[in-house]
Design goal:
Length: 128
């Protein structure tokens, strides 16, 4: 149990380090290309990575659970694609706004404002 907690804390610290330093690189990247071009490259790279993972996971799932009917598989695929497109649209719009904002402010201020979600998510959760 202690090892899992230590691993979890280490992963969270690493994520914070990557997330925080990403703002610096994003800000420097804005010197050479426009926000939408930068985001297009990010989203393309993410689509390739996630597409590869989903292909591998899908093939593994087929071998584990071959008893699903064709209609269940078709509904699952349709819902997954619709959900992925909706999430992708919102993520892309938010990313473009964030990148455009980085043109006009510092990486530190952008990181602070983006981190405000840590305060807003629990408040939203309390209202339910």
């Amino acid at each position: 149990m202690k090892n899992k907690r230590l691993l979890g804390n280490g992963i969270l610290i690493f994520t914070a380090l990557v997330w925080g330093t990403a703002f610096v690189f994003q800000r420097v990247g804005m010197d050479d290309i426009e926000p939408i071009t930068f985001n297009a490259a990010r989203m393309l790279l993410a689509a390739v990575a996630i597409g590869t993972l989903s292909f591998l996971i899908r093939n593994k799932e087929k071998s584990i659970n071959p008893s699903r009917s064709k209609e269940e598989i078709r509904n699952y695929n349709r819902n997954t694609i619709i959900g992925g497109i909706c999430c992708g649209i919102f993520l892309t719009v938010a990313g473009v706004f964030q990148q455009a904002g980085l043109v006009y402010t510092t990486a530190g201020k952008a990181g602070f404002i983006t981190a405000m979600y840590m305060l807003l998510v629990p408040i939203k959760k309390l209202k339910k």
